[in-house]
Design goal:
Length: 100
Amino acid sequence: MSVDTATVRHIAKLARLQMSDAEVEALVPELNNILGWVEQLGEVDTSGVEPLATVIDQKLRLRDDVIDADPLTGGNVRDKVLLNAPDAQHGFFAVPKVIE
């Protein structure tokens, strides 16, 4: 696949770009070079390669979401916390309805 000056002018028109004749002439070989690289990439056999979300092996930087993960703050003390609540229902703080 290759592009010519008419194609470049058409693409520029679709993109609403105003280009001079010199700019169009300069862009034709650049676009053909890019298309050549794309065709070359299409020849690579990637049938055994699994898709990647990123090329770098990343691990989650946050801690796991585990109850009692922090020994200082503890966790799993819902009942003790709810003892301070003026009203608790079904394991939650009960608040009066504010929207009628």
